[in-house]
Specification:
single chain, about 500 residues, alpha/beta, Rossmann fold, Isoleucyl-tRNA Synthetase, Domain 1, six-stranded parallel sheet, four-stranded antiparallel sheet, elongated, binds 5'-O-[(L-methionyl)-sulphamoyl]adenosine
Length: about 500
Amino acid sequence: MPYTLTTPLFYVNDKPHLGSTYTTIACDALARFNRYQGHDVIFITGVDEHGQKIERSAEAKNISPQQHCDEVSQVYQELWANWSMSHDRFVRTSSEIHTNIVNSFFDRINDSGDIYMGRQQGWYCIGCEEYKDVDPNLKEHKCELHQKVLEWKDEENLFFRLSRFQTQIESLINREDFIFPESRRNEIKNFVKQGLRDFSISRVNLKWGIPVPGYSEHTFYVWFDALVGYLTALFLSHTSTSLDNLGKLGWPASVHMVGKDILRFHAVYWPAMLLSAGLPIPNKLFGHGFLTREGQKMGKSLGNIIDPAELISTYGSDPIRWYLLRDIKFGSDGDFQKERLVNIVNNDLANIIGNLLNRTLSMSRKWFDNGIPLINISNIKSHILASVAEESIKSAITNYSKISFHEAAESILNLASASNIYLNESQPWKVIRTDDIQKVSEDIYCVLESTRIIGILLAPIVPELSSKIMQQLSYQFNNSNWTLDLNWGLLVPGNKLPEPQPILNKLD
Ligand code: MSP
């Protein structure tokens, strides 16, 4: 059974910012971790290209929406490549195949009797592409997220009978294994408790959308079309477009990873749409927090964004990946601070891990003929560091599985700190003078082994750094399945070690 993992499909109204990159970095780490667990991962990402927001962005540039989308989608794809994202699919909702899938999907819910024509009136946020509830006592209505004035709309739209799914959605969101983290589950429960209202799934007066079959004036509401994009992604590079085949292609999704602002669409609207279409619902949703700057959500509309392309060229991708996933509790908001990034990266990766590797490699090379000490592997099976490593491996795997990256990072750092302490206390530089070569050999071998384990456990978060550690240790990382790589005692005694190089230059 494949492990299908999705990022949200990003709006292409503008180029990506660090907030949008954050979700993809997290998904990438989760995808890599699951591959190492031996799962057949389908990691989906892509762009959401329709709707008023994008139509207006194209207008402002005086180009066609399609040309605008082509340009911005390209920027996303290049950026993801620069960040070494390991996605398997990149879906675009302006593609022809997507139109076909959306139409088949619509046919199914129409056949279920869940579509009707109605009138939609209300205050609309173009940033969110969503109607908002407002305080009728106020003169002007603003979107809290985008700080933009809402627009009044009054249109004839097609509606989806969401209200019919009240009981099913309630029991779904009450499940303890559906919405994570728990705090977000409660937010959704409160929303659903108020009673689900039918929502409009088409727009009139909007050209830049997929035409609704049989309703020439209407195009699909961008959220309706975008959610179906997850299904389209599974059909890319397949000849069939029949929704009946979804089960064979990797549906339902194992995890939809989304920001907290769009959790409701995924936890309520999307499952109801799928139920209506007679398709399985996703297994799990994870609603992460926002990256903020001075407490405010980082966003294009607020103009407080950090350009990920600029950031990567200053610091490189691994340091930023590390900072974001190690420092911010995944699920909560986190304030992005450059000074903190520099301190965390220098301390963890350069000082704790980098120095551990560097000094052990130097000792090993100096005392053991430029190589790994010649030891008898059976002698080091019960070394104290073997049990510390075992604990770290267990807790790192548990934490990665829980999608708790900051705790996984801590589990790894614990092994590095324990190894540093072990070196300081066992003082091999003194013991080497006493002729107890066997003890020094075994100690040095075990610290090298610890750094190998550290390097492997780091691979989902900082893949480039991890492979540098492997090179330094002359270890051929199996890379496909951790169960082989995480055994204790795999470094080959006597193998030559290259001259130590810093795995990371300290950041300024
Ligand atoms: N197009 C919709 C998603 C459709 S999914 C079928 C959308 N796009 S978005 O580009 O506005 O946002 C994409 C993701 O980026 C969302 O999960 C959103 O929460 C996330 N982020 C945008 N700004 C963010 C931060 N400042 N911090 C963290 N994530 C943020 O919504």
